[in-house]
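Notes from the 1:1 (GR / supervisor)

We went over the backlog. Supervisor wanted to see one worked example end to end before approving the batch request, so GR pasted a single chain during the call. The sequence is below; no edits were made to it. Supervisor asked that the structure be written out right there so they could see what the output format looks like.
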Amino acid sequence: MIPPETAEPTVALTNLEAIPLAAAMVSDRAEQAGIRALVIKGLVVEHHGLRPARGYADVDVIVDPVAFDAFTALLGRSGWHPRTHLWVFDKLEVHSLTLVNDNWPCDIDVHARFPGFLAPDQVVFEELWSHRFSFDVAHRPIIATDAAASAAILGLHALRRPNDERNARELVQLATELRKRPDVSSAMATISAATGSIQTLGPLLDAIGVPRPEGRKVSRRDVRAWKRRTEGRSRAGQWITYLSGLPLRRWPRELRIVVWPPRELYLQEHPATKDTPAALFTARARRVLLGIGDLWRMLIDRFRSQG
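Structure output shown during the call:
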């Protein structure tokens, strides 16, 4: 157990030092409170040899959905508080809460769900929990996902934005590694069947030559939303999903905000943008053009698939 009085660093830490300490702290706090939580991504996939070592800006943890509020409150008592709330989170799917602490250089991303797992959140967590794994970080055992569950999470993370250069590179690296480890690949396929991610993980399963298994049925709407999310470099697909769930009478007002966010909302999401009329106009115009380009490519792909 990490005593409360020593849980906060008393000297300035680098990210390289803070990440393992934060991972150990998160796992320790959850265990002491009787909350089921799994450290994911980052140091975990690195430990399993699924991705080369690199620097990290945050620690990711997925928590039993029924204990999400209790866990964030637990960390809140140690000074961890939500990062500035962004307006887009009120409209698009929110899958995690980013916590920051003035005494730490890294963030903690607390997940209630992970994008791409389309089964109900509790079903997904129970499956991942059945694939828990313990290894030492900062001289303390932490509870994390095993190699198969970590591969599924890393695969979904890369497939969420497959057009991103780094994601595409990671997907190739992951597929190369999984071809050498048929036991992990087979277990990952089983996880995909249980968590409603056969279709979302399908490209990775196909790439490593593992047949897509029969699994839990998921809604067509969720599958369509995932496909929209993964197409292009902007949030255009996610905005289409958001608007499709609204009554038509709300579209004019929402479209004005989505297409051309007011100054305060745009700066909230993009604080590095210079606060001048010219800079804001240029930045928003680029955003619109990027979205239009993505929508155009989506339409072309739809016509091709139907032809």
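Supervisor's comment: The longest helix spans residues 277-306.
Batch request approved.
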